[in-house]
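tool=predict chain=A
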Amino acid sequence: MASVAELKAAIDIALQQIGDGQTAVQAAGEKLSEAQQTLAGALEGSGHETVEAAQASLTQAGQELEECLAATLVAVEQAQLYVSSL
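tool=predict ok
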């Protein structure tokens, strides 16, 4: 069985990895937003359903990334609560 110090060290590593993941998710969200703006500019005025579907898909992807980020924030909070109880 791991000692408390080893457990805290492992949790610290996991929290760092979560932080790295959060950074990647934020970067992905920014790239999706840029892509959405580029697509909107390039296809302005087009009422074609595939253009609308592409925009809707990008919006959904952005929302799902926000949900992912929110979930990681909860995970960090819970891990920190656990560490504080050790």
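DSSP finds two helices and no strands in the chain. Residues 4-85 form one domain.
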